[in-house]
Amino acid sequence: MKYDELAKYLVEAPLYQPKPLEGVVPGKTTVLVEGLGRRPRAEPEFPVPKAVERHCTACGRGTNWRWEGALGSAERIGLGLKWITYRCKNCGGELFSVWILVSLSEDRLFVEKVGQHPKLEIALPPDFEKALGKSKDFYIKGMRSRHAGYGIGALAYLRRVVDDRIYDMLAVLEAAMVETGAYPAAVETVRRARAGKVFDERVRLAAEVMPGHLKPGGMNPFALLYELQSFGLHERSDEECCDIADAMDEAMKYVFTELKSRTEGAAQYKQAATKIQKALAEQRARKEGQAGT
Ligand SMILES: [Zn+2]
Questions:
Q1: How close is the Cα of 120 to the center of ligand 1, in Å?
Q2: Which residues pair with 50 in a beta bridge?
């Protein structure tokens, strides 16, 4: 991972999965070498990420957290076991601690999360929980496996969830397309995809016709799901499977929360606009009526 991915790793990674940290330039320190006195040695070290983003249970939402550096505690992290603490910037009350082991292996620097408090939880935003319906149990089992580092198990559960919920996801896409005025032919394709039976075919069709304005930053959750669902499991490590499970989780959450709220937002806007137009028309009619008398 790159250094700017470290903050996310500290918050979200499962325990005991060492990741190589790239782009760290070794700093110079002096070490005592027996018989030779103090000698300069290049030791890799990197700055503590000063801020992370995570869910705060006290605030009930995602917030920014600031590094809680006690007086004299190092701002740079070297080799060994390190304890880093963050405080929620919003409420100022909640603390998050993470323990990492920094090591060198064949000249590569590795960071491994070995502990955290509070422990990893399963985030279920209300809309998402509702959308999961009967698949919620499988989702929770999948995320529990993921948090324990059992990526292969996690992936199997999440694939099942995606399989079971694809009809609903396509319904969200269809509604979003109708509400935001997509081409009728594209909407018709999504309808056909929903009615289909073969998973691959349904998701591929949806991915192909998803309009650009529903893909902020070019994210096409259906293209992603299509690709991830068909990824072979053989020869993949728990770690790789964890990453795939995370991407599936994000794609699903995007459809059931972001895409859905966009549709609702567009519908509300339409309703408001209709109301305003009606009020304006009434006013105009009244004025014309007055002018006529
Ligand atoms: Zn808070």
A1: 16
A2: none
Query: Does pTM top 0.90 for this prediction?
Result: no
Measured at the CA of 202, the angle between CA 201 and CA 206, to 5 degrees, comes to 115
201 C-beta neighbours (distance < 10 Å), count: 13
pLDDT tens-digit profile of 243-286? 899 989 989 988 888 888 877 777 777 777 777 778 778 888 88
Ligand 1 mean position, distance from CA 68 (Å): 14
CA of 132 to the centre of ligand 1 (A): 27
Q: Distance from the CA of 101 to the center of ligand 1, in angstroms? A: 27
Q: Which of 56, 54, 26 is nearest to 42 (CA)?
A: 26
| Per-residue pLDDT band at 292 (split at 50, 70, 90) | low
* Close Cβ partners of 259 (under 8 Å, ≥ 6 residues apart): 172, 173, 176, 214, 221
**Mean pLDDT value of segment 145-157:** 93
Of 76-85, 177-186, 265-274, least confident by mean pLDDT is 265-274
Compute the distance between CA of residue 116 and CA of residue 134 in angstroms, rounded to an integer.
31
Question: 255: closest CA among 195, 176, 199, 188?
Answer: 176
In the reported structure, the alpha carbon of residue 242 is separated from the centroid of ligand 1 by a whole-number distance in angstroms of 28
Token readout for 103 is: 């090591």
Please tell me the distance between residue 49's alpha carbon and the centre of ligand 1 in angstroms. Answer: 19
Ligand 1 centre to CA of 5 (Å) is 22
